[in-house]
Amino acid sequence: MVVGDGGSKKLSGKTIDDIPVGLRTQITKTVSESDVYLFAGITGDLDPNHVDEEYCRKTSLGHRVAHGALLVSRILQDFDRPMVSVGYDRIRFLKPVYFGDTLTIDYEITGVEREKERTLAKIEVRNQKDDLVAVATHIMQLVD
User: In this structure, which of 19, 23, 61, 69 has its CB flanked by the most CB atoms within 10 Å?
Assistant: First the structure.
C-alpha cells in the first residue's frame, strides 16, 4: 500500500505484494565537500580525483569529483519490513559530479520478483542543469 500526504509517498506493508510496480520516489541532495571526504574515509578511496583540488585542476576534470558509488547509495527505505540491497546492475557514470552540484535521484520500481521477495528499480541521477549523470538498476530484497 502507498500512503502519503499528497506530495510524498511512503510504502506501508509487510509483503512483496504491497510494493506496486511504478512506485516512484525522488530525493534531492547537494553534494558537499564533507559528503565526499566522509565517504572517502569510510571506503578508503582517497584517489586524488576526489580529494586533491590542485591535482584535479591539471586534469580534464578541472575540479574534484564525487565518488560514483556515492551517487547511487541512496535507496528506498520506507517500508514496514526490513529490506536490503542485493546489488546494482548496469551502473553507468555518465558525467562528473562536482562538489556543490545538486542532484535529483529518481527511483522507480520497475519489477517485482515475488518468489524471491525482490524489487527491481530504475535509478536516474540528474544534476542542477538536468544533465543525466548516472543510471543504474537496483535490486532490493525483503528480509525476515
Answer: 19
Spatial separation of the C-alpha atoms in residues 118 and 111, rounded to whole Å: 8
Q: What is the pTM of this model?
A: 0.83
* Residue 10, C-alpha cell as written in the block: 511512503
Average pLDDT over residues 93-115: 94
Name the 3-class secondary structure at 20.
coil
Q: Which helix (H) or strand (E) holds 113?
A: strand 102-113
Among residues 4, 69, 70, the alpha carbon closest in space to that of 31 is found at 70
Q: How far is CA 1 from the centre of its chain?
A: 23
What local confidence, expressed as pLDDT, does residue 3 receive?
A: 44
Is 19 buried (19+), middle (13-18) or exposed (0-12) by CB count in 10 A? Answer: buried
* Among the listed residues 64, 54, 136, 138, the one whose alpha carbon sits nearest the alpha carbon of residue 101: 64
Q: Which helix (H) or strand (E) holds 53?
A: helix 53-57
The domain made up of 2-142 has a fold known as Thiol Ester Dehydrase; Chain A (3.10.129)
